[in-house]
Design goal:
Layout: E1 3-10, H1 14-27, E2 32-36, H2 41-47, H3 53-60, E3 64-69, H4 83-90, E4 95-103, E5 109-117, E6 127-129, E7 136-138, H5 144-160, E8 164-169, H6 177-189, E9 196-201, H7 202-211, E10 218-221, H8 223-236, E11 244-248, E12 254-258, H9 275-287, H10 291-302, H11 310-324
Parallel strand pairs: 1-2, 1-3, 3-12, 5-10, 8-9, 8-10
Antiparallel strand pairs: 4-5, 4-11, 6-7, 11-12
Helix pairs in contact: 1-9, 1-11, 5-6, 7-8, 9-10, 10-11
The protein binds 3-isopropylmalic acid and manganese (II) ion.
3-isopropylmalic acid (IPM) binds near residues 72, 84, 85, 227 and 261.
């Protein structure tokens, strides 16, 4: 059986790291076929849509999507919405899995997974400005259904890992929204007697992640908190150059993307570190059942330092893989 992968390079360094990740995947000699699709701000400027219908159709007809990055302006642009947010919604990819593995600046071992709710919260797109232009309001939507399914996903991951789950919220202030998230979380975790469950306020979690990162295994939280804490976790383990993520739901395709953005400051210079995209490809392979190959990719990335140039780092990763082959197949 062949698996079809849609590559969406997007904007900025996405155009550099996705071809690099494709070359690494191709070196594995797995039954994969690749197709490329357009999305992003450049696509919006050229074609009037950031995520054209034909891109959705291409994605729908594939088993997995490897996504680079897209640029989102800081101000409102009529008709533009971030394509990654649209893809998450379109395929109902409610779980954003963001592992952080490495050694912290303080020397502590870090091996944690942020499980970020991916469909609602402050990302619901419900924002408005009052008529006087002096007050802006964002609605934070939290539902019991979305909270329950993300906490269930996090519990399943905790079970596969070290059995410890931290529920992160701010229910002391956001009594309704975080209150519902917290209450739903505890209702769900009641079925997971084998896990060690704790709760933590998000500000405390930020501090403790810095000071004692090794006490964390799986963190589950709402959308914006997860966005912020996953960058923090990436910073703990060497930065965004090596931080991958997976957006997954009940069905394929999932979307696999580096946590980093389009990095316009270094785009076009061939300098971007491709390892976050390559490690995202490893998560993609794992999702498709190629566990051995996924592990080989991780090992090859761990053994490779960024060589200042995308092409050199990619070549080094492929060299490591070739040494590990043929066991890396499968
Ligand atoms: C990420 C990014 C996106 C997000 C942006 C680009 C919409 O920061 O994947 O973390 O906040 O989800
Ligand atoms: Mn982010």
């Amino acid at each position: 059986m062949t698996h079809t992968i849609t590559l969406i390079p997007g904007d900025g360094i996405g155009q550099e790291v996705i071809p690099a990740a494709r070359d690494v995947l191709a070196a594995l000699d797995l039954p994969l076929t690749f197709q490329t699709a357009d999305a992003g701000f450049g696509t919006f400027e050229r074609r009037g849509s950031a995520l054209p219908d034909e891109t959705i159709a291409t994605c729908t007809a594939s088993d997995a999507i490897l996504f680079g990055a897209t640029s989102s302006p800081m101000h409102k642009v009529e008709g533009y919405r971030s394509p990654i947010l649209m893809l998450r919604r379109h395929f109902d990819l409610y779980a954003n899995l963001r592992p952080a593995v490495g050694v912290s600046p303080g020397g502590a071992p870090v091996d944690l997974l942020v499980v970020r709710e991916n469909t609602e919260g402050l990302y619901s797109g419900r924002e408005r400005v009052e008529d006087d232009g002096m007050t802006a309001i964002a609605e934070r939507v939290i539902t019991a259904q979305a909270s329950a399914r993300i906490v269930r996903t996090a519990c399943d991951w905790a079970r596969k890992r070290r059995g410890r789950l931290t529920i992160v919220h701010k229910a002391n202030v956001l009594k309704e929204t975080c209150g519902l998230f917290r209450q739903t979380a505890f209702a769900v975790t009641g079925d997971f007697h084998d896990l060690e469950i704790e709760e933590m306020l998000v500000d405390t979690a930020a501090m403790r992640l810095v000071m004692e990162p090794d006490r964390f295994d799986v963190i589950v939280t709402t959308n914006l908190f997860g966005d912020i804490l996953s960058d923090l976790a990436a910073g703990l383990t060497g930065g965004l150059g090596t931080a991958p993520s997976a957006n997954v739901g009940e069905q394929r395709p999932g979307v696999f993307e580096p946590v980093h953005g389009s990095a316009p400051d270094i785009a076009g210079q061939g300098k971007a570190d491709p390892r976050a995209a390559i490690l995202s490809a490893a998560m993609l392979l794992e999702d498709l059942g190629y566990a051995v190959a996924a592990r080989a990719l991780r090992e090859a990335c761990a053994a490779t330092r960024h060589a200042d140039h995308t092409a050199d780092t990619t070549a080094r990763v492929i060299d490591h893989l070739r040494q590990a082959l043929p066991t890396a197949r499968g």
